[in-house]
Design the sequence.
């Protein structure tokens, strides 16, 4: 006659804590019956993953807090955003729009403030839709993914600025080069506005998950391609096309390629 044994998860054999009341039953059969099929199938899921409710609630609470804080930040800088937005729209159709912003101290300051405060909502979206999810991100504690992505994005910006400082042309006109260096912030703001609009429309139709992630990636790729094109036009106004190509490879494609490679390979 088979025996029955009550078991508790190995991660918490005590009778207290999140596993209290969770109990499995194991039936011990005679050897002739237990292995009659010639195979023994075991679960590949570790026992400590049976209960993850607390971690999920912690992550959701952190994301909600950061989303609320992002809204507060946007309200705080709304005046700066309103002042710069018409000029940013001009940058979509004319490369000289980037020069106009850079030549106006007030507009460039409003642009810089807006781009700086837009980093957090972008990181929230990147974490929510897993836009950047290399394997090493699994080592980040629950609830800290968005903060980790924010740090990685800031490091990416610092690395780009370092490259621009190292490869700054000595004899060419500094005005077009400065406009090209700062143009990334212009298209970053526009890309985030487009992403927020797209995700809002998709949420109305209850579309999310993979489809929403792909839509965001396509928007980012489109704005990044437009940014590279406009930046090449700005640089070509003071450099020959070959030097412009080298600048784009060293200052933009190289750091962005590293970021994408870490997402794919790591």
Sequence:
């Amino acid at each position: 006659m088979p025996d029955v044994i009550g078991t508790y998860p190995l991660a918490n054999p005590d009778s207290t804590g999140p596993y209290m009341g969770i109990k499995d039953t194991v039936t011990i059969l005679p050897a002739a019956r237990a292995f009659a099929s010639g195979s023994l199938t075991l679960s590949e899921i570790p026992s400590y993953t049976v209960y993850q409710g607390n971690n999920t609630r912690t992550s959701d609470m952190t994301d909600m807090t950061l989303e609320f804080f992002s809204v507060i930040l946007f309200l705080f800088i709304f005046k700066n955003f309103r002042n710069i937005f018409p000029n940013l729209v001009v940058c979509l159709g004319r490369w000289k729009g980037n020069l106009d912003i850079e030549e106006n101290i007030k507009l460039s300051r409003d642009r810089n403030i807006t781009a700086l405060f837009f980093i957090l909502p972008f990181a929230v979206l990147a974490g929510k839709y897993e836009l950047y999810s290399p394997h090493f991100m699994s080592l980040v504690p629950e609830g800290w993914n968005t903060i980790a992505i924010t740090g990685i994005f800031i490091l990416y910006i610092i690395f780009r600025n370092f490259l621009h400082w190292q490869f700054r042309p000595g004899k060419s006109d500094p005005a077009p080069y400065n406009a090209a260096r700062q143009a990334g912030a212009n298209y970053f703001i526009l890309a985030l506005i487009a992403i927020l609009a797209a995700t809002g429309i998709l949420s109305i139709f209850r579309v999310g998950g993979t489809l929403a992630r792909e839509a965001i990636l396509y928007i980012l790729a489109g704005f990044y391609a437009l940014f590279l094109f406009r930046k090449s036009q700005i640089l070509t106004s003071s450099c020959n096309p070959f030097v412009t190509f080298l600048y784009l490879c060293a200052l933009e494609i190289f750091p962005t390629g590293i970021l994408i490679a870490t997402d794919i390979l790591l």
Q: What stands out?
A: The chain has two domains: 1-51, 64-265.
